[in-house]
Amino acid sequence: MNETAALRPIPKAPGYVTAALRIFELSVSEMLWSRRTIFMALVVGAPVVISFVLRALDVLGAPVFQINGARMAGPAIFGLMIWVFYLRFTVPVLGVFYGTSLIADEVEDKTITYLFTRPIRRGAVLVGKYLAYLACTVFVVLPSVMIVYLLIVPMRGSLGGSFIDLVVDLSLLALGLAVYGAVFAFIGSVFRRPLLVGLIFIFGWEQAALAFPGYLKRFTVAYYLQALVPHAMPNDGVISLIQGLFRDTPSMPVSLFCLVVIWAVFLGFSANAVERKEYVLDQ
């Protein structure tokens, strides 16, 4: 009996990709039913509600976005909403709130030991949870954008003429969620107060670096992401005006290349940090 047990093959630990996909399956439902889902619903739901109101006012004949006696066309209003609601707020904010929590929440809830005692690489845990974040945010944010598009663009506009811009917008926002998520996953894996560091990054560092001429803006995600937007930058404030004056837009190939590099480097650094760091649970 003992000889038979000794000869029984020991099951192999799952590979890196297989382990990441298993963590992904476990984390998707957990993220969808977390407290952050309510916050995400409020963030992506606000532009939809505003679009319904604007469309209702337009049907009633109210002057919606009237400038110098001329009303803005639907595509122009849609482009403004992409800039203000999604690119400048929704994408970086969801990235910081979800990305920094991939490991930090497990440490705070004292469940990190259950994940790390499994026969899988620690880095695979981080990658699996990152993929779950990306799936949850992409499949919530992009439908919100499509609803806003269908409500706003027909207002003195043409659906066909701006459909290509919609495809570009959807791809751009998905790319932004991926890159910001990787950056903040690294911050969440290294810093003890990752949410604070992440908020300082998007509302402090990025805004300041973009507002002044020089090379510092090249060390931000927004610099490359905003270069891909097919809509004109709105001058809705002093910061936007300053950014417009000193705007140095990189080409599309350069922006795409830099964003892919940022994504790969920070996601790789995140997995490596999780592999090496010893997490101490507070008693």
Question: What is the strand and helix layout of this fold?
Answer:
Layout: H1 2-7, H2 16-32, H3 35-59, E1 66-67, E2 70-71, H4 74-99, H5 101-108, H6 112-116, H7 122-152, H8 163-190, H9 194-211, H10 222-226, H11 238-245, H12 252-276
Antiparallel strand pairs: 1-2
Description:
By secondary structure, this protein is mainly α. Helices cover 71% and strands 1% of the residues. It is built from twelve helices and two strands. The protein has helices at residues 2-7, 16-32, 35-59, 74-99, 101-108, 112-116, 122-152, 163-190, 194-211, 222-226, 238-245, 252-276; strands spanning 66-67, 70-71. The protein has a two-stranded antiparallel sheet. Strand 1 (66-67) and strand 2 (70-71) form a beta hairpin. Helix 8 packs parallel to helix 12. It is globular and about 65 Å long. 37% of the residues are buried. The model has no long low-confidence stretch (mean pLDDT 82).
Main sheet: which strands, in order across? 1-2
Number of helices: 12
Distance between the termini: 45 Å
Number of strands: 2
Residue fraction in strands: under 5%
Q: Overall pLDDT, averaged? A: 82
| Uncertain regions spanning at least 5 consecutive residues | none
Largest sheet: 2 strands, antiparallel
What general form does the structure show?
globular
Helix content: over 70%
Radius of gyration from the alpha-carbon trace, in angstroms: 22 Å
